[in-house]
Specification:
Elements lengths: L2 H6 L4 H16 L4 H16 L11 H12 L1 H11 L3 H6 L6 E7 L11 H10 L2 E8 L20 H11 L7
Parallel strand pairs: 1-2
Length: 174
């Protein structure tokens, strides 16, 4: 498996966990590439089977990424439920003519921008209008700028601007 294969994978647990490491592993430790992919796939298979996830042999940065997603009991149920839904499959079922805006921030470590093309393609194939991907510089997964509290109700200015531009054709005055 190579970087192009990983980035061409549909959005899935494997891709979301693997993508952030694929480029850095290839750059820093190319000889570790296959081991990294195999280790991630084994950990995800163990998780899906309801088994204890064995992290021995995984790079520390991968264990760090897996821990909040798969290794924390409080998140396990949510992660398994989320894993049952394919955003690409769901996007393919969106009604034709539905207006769509896709946003992703360059500081989003949960869903890297590089993983969004399959979602945009599925929405295009479904006949939605748009779908336009707005890449938001410096914005994280919660639509905030880094350093903003997670529960802060104020969105990053670039998020507000993207939403306003998307909604503008439907705005009414008076």
């Amino acid at each position: 498996m190579n970087l192009q294969t990983v980035l061409a994978m549909p959005i899935s647990m494997e891709r979301l966990i693997t993508a952030p490491f694929a480029e850095s592993v290839m750059r820093e430790q190319p000889q570790m590439k296959l081991r990294v992919y195999e280790g991630i796939n084994n950990a995800i298979a163990q998780f899906r089977a309801g088994q204890q996830v064995d992290t021995s042999g995984l790079l520390p940065q991968i264990v760090e990424q897996l821990t909040p997603e798969l290794l924390t009991p409080g998140n396990a149920k949510v992660a398994r439920t989320d894993d049952e839904v394919s955003p690409v499959d769901a996007a393919a079922k969106v009604a034709a003519g539905t207006r769509v805006l896709i946003t992703d921030g360059t500081a989003d470590s949960n869903i890297p921008v590089s993983t969004m093309s399959s979602l945009a393609s599925a929405l295009t194939s479904a006949g939605t209008t748009g779908p336009e991907l707005k890449v938001l510089t410096g914005v994280n997964h919660l639509l905030h700028m880094p350093g903003t509290q997670d529960n802060d109700p104020v969105l990053a200015p670039s998020v507000v601007a993207a939403l306003k531009a998307w909604a503008q054709p439907f705005a009414t005055t008076g």
